[in-house]
């Protein structure tokens, strides 16, 4: 499932992944946002997960909400009583079939639910393996330890290292290679300069995909497609799909 789309001329074009769903038209990280993006033609979705006190996984960007506090301190039932719009990861997989699901594990030391033991990674692997949806998923994180744990438990599961501009691309790529991760997820500004093509080529030489976030401007989408990224993670999947398809027609 982790591949590019084949264009009519046999060339490859990047996947379009909806960042937290079609979040400009529906509440982000909700079933309506995800299903709308897929109806628009997105190849997949990107979402964020946090664990709960009863060892379930809920889809939400932040570790807490103003009305509930830290989600890791609550059961799914307690969360649903106040926020029925917050889906579990299992509910998302049930609603989203035949697509790629990029599951971002939120587990940085600054997060309110930070867990050095990587319990969230354990739960993600258990759920996806139990659903037999390994081929439909890629697990990403800014925390290298979290995705290392994923590979330890499931060596064949696709993983990606999220990288912000404070990180050196070459160092990040080396970390990906050394730890066996098949994708690097850089912020788009890291590929904005002439070196972007070199970075992508180097990644591909190592067999590492480049899935870039969060790309919303037409000029940026066009540029990144032209230099050969493997996936565009975007808030505007409908726009990105039109641009991609027009460039490959």
Automatic annotation (TrEMBL):
Cited PROSITE patterns: GP_PDE (PS51704)
UniProt GO BP: lipid metabolic process
Pfam families: GDPD (PF03009)
GO molecular function annotations of the record: phosphoric diester hydrolase activity
InterPro entries: GP_PDE_dom, PLC-like_Pdiesterase_TIM-brl
Signal sequence, start to end: none
Coiled-coil region list: none
Alphabetized CDD domains for the sequence: GDPD (cd08556)
Residue ranges of every copy of the GP-PDE domain listed in the record: 14-244
Name the UniProt record assigns to this protein: Unannotated protein
